[in-house]
Amino acid sequence: MTATARIALNRPLRRLFDYQIPDGCRIEPGQRVQIPFGRQFATGLVVDTNVTPPANIQLKPVNRALEPWPALPAETLKLLTWAADYYQHPLGESLFMALPPALRRGQPAALPKETFWQLSGREHSLPKQAHRQQALLDWLAGEGKPQATRDVLAAGFSRSQLKGLAEKGLVTECDPPAHTAPDSPSTPLPPLTEAQQQTFADLPPVDGKFHCTLLYGVTGSGKTELYLHYLQNNLTADDQALVLVPEINLTPQTVARFQRYFGDRIEVWHSALNDGQRLATWLRIREGKPVIVIGTRSAVLLPFIGLQTLIVDEEHDSSYKQGEGFRYSGRDLAVFRGHLNQCPVILGSATPSLESYANTQNGKYGLARLEQRVGSATAPEVRLLDIRSRPLEGGVSQPALSAIRRCLDSGQQALVFVNRRGYAPVMMCFDCGHLMECPDCDSRLTYHQRDRALRCHHCDYQQAAPTVCPSCQSEAFKPIGQGTERTEDTLTNLFPDVPVIRVDRDSTQRKGSIQSILERVNSGDPCILVGTQMLAKGHDFPKVTLVVVVNADGGLFSVDFRAPEQLIQTLLQVSGRAGRSRDPGTVLVQTCHSDHPLLNSLQQGRYLDIAQQLLTEREAAQLPPFRPMAIIRAEAPEMSESLAFLDQIRNTLTQDALEVWGPLPALIARKAKRHRAQLVVLCEQRGGIREALKAACQQAEQLRTSRDFRWQIDVDPQET
Ligand code: ADP
Ligand code: ZN
Ligand code: ZN
C-alpha cells in the first residue's frame, strides 16, 4: 500500500487534501510540502500521514518536501489543531498563522546569507576629505561587534564608502557575531521585598507538570520584578520561555528591563517586525535556542521546542483576543499550551479578568496576591466628582482644574484621561439640529480639528469639516462633547507655562513618537499628559501624582455585558499611573452618576471584591464564565439577507442544552455599507457548544448566499 499524507492549505476551506507520498520520500506531520493543486503548485502543511483514502481514487503524489524537518513541531501542531477546532476556524488557515510570512509563501526556511564587516585593526591615516569613511570606521569601532551591510546602510553610510575602506584593507568581511547570553547579567536583580518574597512562594513550582497561577498584583507592586526573578530562578541555560504582553510598542521600558538581565537571550515578537526579522526569530526558536520571547498575542503560536515557562502579563487585556479571521485568545492558548507542555503558566494583572478569577475559585488556577506597592508608594486615593451641575472647561471641572494647578505647582505631573480621540465626537447645528453622520455606518462623525476633518471611527470614511451647517447654512454649527484634542487645547490655554502632551492613536502614529513622548515625561519636569486608553497601559510614570478621569460614565449603561468589568479595569489601570513613587497619588473621577454602586465600589473596595460582585451578577444571569458563549455574525448589503441566513442557522441549533438569542441586528447595525446581524449562543457545557457550533458551521458553508455576503463565528467573544 502506498503511503498517504493528509494536507492543509492556507485557504479558508474547511477540508483537507490527500496526496500520495512518493517512494523513498520521508514525510511526517508538521512538514511543509509542495503539491500540485489545480494547474499550479501550492504550499501545504502535512497534518497526518496515517490515513486511508477512499479505495477507488487515484491520488496525486506530493511534489517534494520543502525541508526535511517539520516546520510545526509536534506540540505546536497539536496546539493549533486544538485551537482550530475550539474556535471553529478552518484548520489550514489556522496552521499557516504559525508560520512567518516568507514560509507561508513557500520560500526556503533559511536566512539569506549576509556579509558582515569588522575593523581589520590595521594602522591608518585617511586623507582629510575622506571624512565619511573615517566616520564609518568610528561607528564600527563604537558598535564593538561586526555589522551587516544592511546595518551599515541603515546607519547612513554608502556601499562605496564601505568598498573604499575594504580596498584600503581597513575593514574585512567576517562571520556574523554569535548570539551570546551574558554569563552574569550586567545589572543584578534588586532583591525582592518581603511582601514580594511571600507572593513569590505562591508562584507555581517548575516540576514538569502543568500549573496555572493567577498573580493578582496591584499596580506598582512589582509584578514585572517577580517575572524576572521567576525566570532567573527557574530557567536552565537550555530552556525557552514566553512572556506575552498586550502591546510592545507602548511599553518599550518593559522589554528594556528584560534585556538588562537576560541580554541577547531576549527576542521580541510583534506586528511591526519585517519579514526578514520574523523569519530570523522564528528560526532561532524552531532550532531550540534558549530564548526568552517577549511578544504580543501571536507569539503563543511560535514553534517552541524547549518551552519551560509561560507568563501572560496584563492577562485581562482585550487585545489578547484576535478580532478577525482566526479569533483566538492568546491568553487562553497560553494556558492550553502550558497544559500540553506540562509546564507552569503565570497570568498576571492588577485587574484580573472575571474568567481567570473564577478559575481560581473553582480550583483550576492557583492565586498569588501582591497587594502592596513597592517602597513607600501607597495606593492612590480615588474621589468621585459629581459634575451634573458644574460648569466645565474642555470637559474639566473647576475642582479638577485647581487640583491640576496644585499638582503642577508642587513640581509634579498630572494625567488627564479622555476616552475618545479627536476634538469632539459630534458636530451639530444649533439652529436646525442637523448632526453629521457617516453615510456608510450608523454612527456620528468625529471632528478632528488638527486637520479640519470629520472622520468615522468605524470605517475609513472621512470628509473636510464644513464651516456652516450643510442643511440650513447656519453658522451656529458646533462641536459637542470631549475628545483628546479639545481637552489638550483647553489645558494649553489654562496652563500656558507647562507642556501639555497628548497621547492617542493620532499623536503617536509616527514611528518612535511614543518613545520620545515617554522620554519627555520621564525627564520629570512638570507637565500635563492628556490621552486615551494608551496611557492606561503598563507605563511607569514616577512623577505623576494626579489622575483626572474626564468622564467615567460611558460604560455604566452599556448593553454589553462586559462593559462594567472593562470600565472598572480601565479606571483602576489609569489610576494605577498615579503615585507610583514616593509621593502619594490622587484620582479624580468626574461623573454624572456619583451614586452609582459600581463607581462607589471603586472608591472603597479592592478589585477582587468588585470582581466578586460582578461574578455574582454574571452567575445570576448565567453569562460567561458560567456558561460558554459564541456569536455567529452575518453581514450583507441588505439586512434581510443577514437575518434570513441566521434564521436558517438557528434552525440547526436545537439541542436542549443550548440557549440562542436572535437573530438580531448588531449594535451598530450598518457599518461600511454592510448590514450586520448576529446570533448569540450559550450552552450548559463547553463540549456541547463545540459540537453544535461545528454542525452550524457545516450548515453555513452549504447555504446559498449572495457574493457580497460574509459570516463568521466568534467563540468566547470579547464584544457582544
Ligand atoms: P508592576 O508590573 O506591578 O506595575 P513593576 O514591576 O513595574 O510593577 O514595579 C514598579 C516599580 O517598582 C518599578 O520601577 C520597579 O523597578 C520597582 N521595583 C519593583 N520591585 C522592586 C524591588 N524589589 N526593589 C526595588 N525596586 C523595585
Ligand atoms: Zn442647520
Ligand atoms: Zn463609517
Can you describe this structure in just a few lines?
The chain has 720 residues and is an alpha/beta fold. Helix content is 30%, strand content 23%.
Main traits of this protein?
720 residues, helicase, PriA_3primeBD, hydrolase activity, hydrolase, alpha/beta, seven-stranded parallel β-sheet
Structural overview:
The protein has 720 residues and is α/β, with parallel strands linked by helices. 30% of the residues lie in helices and 23% in strands. The protein has 20 helices and 32 strands. The strands form eight sheets. Strands 11-12-10-13-14-9-15 form a seven-stranded parallel sheet, sandwiched between helices. α1 crosses α11 (330-341) and α19 crosses α20 (686-702). The protein starts with a strand and ends in a 5-residue tail after the last strand. Bound molecules: adenosine-5'-diphosphate and zinc ion (2 copies). Residues 190, 192-193, 196, 217, 219-225, 374, 540 line the site of adenosine-5'-diphosphate. One zinc ion is lined by residues 429, 431-432, 434, 469, 471-472, 474.
Give the helices and strands, then pairings.
Blueprint: E1 4-9, E2 17-20, E3 32-37, E4 40-48, E5 64-65, H1 74-86, H2 91-96, H3 101-104, E6 116-119, H4 131-143, E7 147-148, H5 149-154, H6 159-167, E8 171-174, H7 194-201, E9 211-217, H8 223-234, E10 240-244, H9 252-262, E11 266-269, H10 275-286, E12 292-295, E13 307-312, H11 330-341, E14 344-349, H12 354-361, E15 366-370, E16 381-386, E17 392-393, E18 396-397, H13 398-409, E19 413-417, E20 426-429, E21 446-448, E22 453-455, E23 462-464, E24 477-480, H14 484-494, E25 500-503, H15 513-522, E26 528-531, E27 544-549, H16 563-575, E28 586-591, H17 597-604, H18 607-621, E29 629-636, H19 639-652, E30 658-671, E31 674-683, H20 686-702, E32 710-715
The chain binds adenosine-5'-diphosphate and zinc ion (2 copies).
Residues 429, 431-432, 434, 469, 471-472, 474 line the site of one zinc ion.
Domain Helicase C-terminal: 460-623
Organism: Marinobacter xestospongiae
Pfam families: DEAD (PF00270), Helicase_C (PF00271), PriA_3primeBD (PF17764), PriA_C (PF18074), Zn_ribbon_PriA (PF18319)
